[in-house]
Amino acid sequence: MNEEHLHAPSGAYALNALPDDERAEFERHVRDCPACAQEVRELSATAARLGTAVASAPPAAMKQQVLAQITTVRQLPPAMASGAITPRTAPGRTGRLPRLVLAACVAVATAFGGVALWQHQEARQAEEQARRAEQRAADMARVLVAPDARTVTGSKGGAKATVVVSREENSAVFLASGLPEPASGKTYQLWFDDGGTMRPAGLLGGDGSLMMEGGVDGATGMGVTVEPAGGSPRPTTPPVMLMSLPA
After folding, report:
1. 220 dihedral zone (left: phi>0; alpha: psi -120 to 50; beta)
2. Is the pLDDT of residue 1 over 60?
């Protein structure tokens, strides 16, 4: 590796994506390079957050609702052997009992059809949420291991932010820790700085990681402001944090 390339594999190293020979060479380098050591720590923390992002828990009430419905399901009667005597119905009741049984069966089928539909919808929603989370994690990982990935960090008070930029992927990943919870009805909004013009780049409720929305393009910096829930087309408050993006 030449001197410039020695600093590049930090993202791939944090994700255990380097071949053995390059891994050993980078480990020798990182022992004497505080900047790369810090970058590896930050990217490893980002990777850990991405791993937890794909977890999807079922609704809290699902288990109780399913168990409650199970108690209403009657056991099937024993099968009658061929030639068994069929009990006679009482005079005057012919046709009434079958109609009552049919009505009961329809009611039960309708109820369980609704439960099955609800469970199917819940499962589909959970599956879609997991799929989106996995896609976000894959997109972030692609930026972190990009050969040209560069990292910049900033801090204000107890809050710290890290931005990983890949010009080749035309993407950036934002990671924050120590951000205070925004006031009710407010959210943090990220911005790309296009030569003094701020371009919306996504919403963040608090600590966590986010694939910044839109391409990096020619942005030279990024900022974070507090905006109304749902975001704003342009900043309405002074920036909480401003950082220059690596070239």
Report:
1. alpha
2. no
Q: How far apart are CA 101 and CA 67, in angstroms?
A: 24
Is residue 19 predicted with pLDDT exceeding 90? no
Domain edges within the chain: 1-54+103-145, 147-247
**Chain segment 207-221, per-residue pLDDT in tens:** 778 899 999 999 999
3-state secondary structure labels for all residues of the chain: CCHHHHCCCHHHHHCCCCCHHHHHHHHHHHCCCHHHHHHHHHHHHHHHHHHHHCCCCCCCCHHHHHHHHHCCCCCCCCCCCCCCCCCCCCCCCCCHHHHHHHHHHHHHHHHHHHHHHHHHHHHHHHHHHHHHHHHHHHHHHHHHCCCCCEEEEEEECCEEEEEEEECCCCEEEEEEECCCCCCCCEEEEEEEEECCEEEEEEEECCCEEEECCCCCCCCCEEEEEEEECCCCCCCCCCCCEEEECCC
In sequence order, the 6+-apart residues with CB closer than 8 A to the CB of 31 are: 37
